[in-house]
Amino acid sequence: MDPKEILKAHISKTATLTDEQFDYLFSHFKPKSFKKGQAIISEGDKVDHEYFVISGCLKAFFINDEIKMYILQFAMPTWWTSDYGALYNHTRATISVDCISDAEVLCLSNEDREKICSEIHQAEHFFRWRTNRGYLASQKRLLSFMNNDTKARYEELLAMYPQLYNLVPKHLIAAYLGVSRETLSRLYNAHK
Amino acid sequence: MDPKEILKAHISKTATLTDEQFDYLFSHFKPKSFKKGQAIISEGDKVDHEYFVISGCLKAFFINDEIKMYILQFAMPTWWTSDYGALYNHTRATISVDCISDAEVLCLSNEDREKICSEIHQAEHFFRWRTNRGYLASQKRLLSFMNNDTKARYEELLAMYPQLYNLVPKHLIAAYLGVSRETLSRLYNAHK
DNA sequence: TGCAGAATGTGATGTAGATCACCTAAGCCC
DNA sequence: GGGCTTAGGTGATCTACATCACATTCTGCA
Questions:
Q1: What was the pLDDT predicted at B104?
Q2: Distance, angstroms, CA A11 to C1' C15?
């Protein structure tokens, strides 16, 4: 399935666009390919695009002063990612994005998104719902952080994204859960 | 300042509505007053409204199996709150909302919001941006949870909302930070 | 105005998970 | 294909915070 069809199927779940409108919208996306390990956004960069994943897996992460990494999001096909804080506030990137595997993405600039949203009401509708889902997911994860211990969060993650177990090295899963790789290792070796 | 003017000032920061459009939009909001301690949404309720705070302070919270409370959000004037998960997915409330002080709010039904969004492009624009800000705040809080210890999060919270220190009992601040009230107490009594 | 319940402080003790140190196995690259 | 880097496992120790227990205000309201 080609990128255009994937995006079309994705958007048509929440918004009704005519073919002309969709073609117009799609004309603002630039396809791009990346190799495993390649950076898409690095800390300190100027950020002016967001990315829609067609294939592969990205991670959006934050590195703190003690060089510890925290993963905010794994981005799988049909997910969107970027440093949205930097993108919307026109500040430098504090969140980085790179490729866990080879990946194809569609790039959309902040400017183009805003232009399209103001020109096509249904596009604005789509982006409202997309953000909405992100907000709900983020709240849910926050609650899980407060309420559950590491083991419960690990199981929750694997129940939600079983593919991750094989696709993603364990120390990245630890960085998503916010625990040390040692603790995670002990965790799933204990109950087998 | 009356509720209508407060909402108008709030919305006009991100969207441009004509007076007629705003009047139409405003006609869908129902003002309501609550007393300190009163519940607005209780676990298990059917949720069909969201709430815009005019005065007072609300809290949105979750109670887990061990009857421990976690506060997702303090809602101050010009903030919006609800159990958005339940509201958008038409499920029963898992998040509750009640009043920390006497409060006035404007109620907007989910149905009316969607109707207005489809009728007025700029209203949809406003709600996209509102959700966006919520999403960014939620991501920031998640990062803070992973990266900072309790003391840093406590100081961050008070730096952001100095009013809270006097307005809100300490055990609620602990419930927001996700620590026990004992730990919080020891924390700010240590460094004085 | 007096008292019941809520809010807060503080000691003692238990524990999940961090950190450090070191080891093994598996990719990957010239 | 040999060496080097990255991923992963495991023991020992340390620490922030939870939990329990109880004392001490504060506060709203009968």
A1: 96
A2: 48
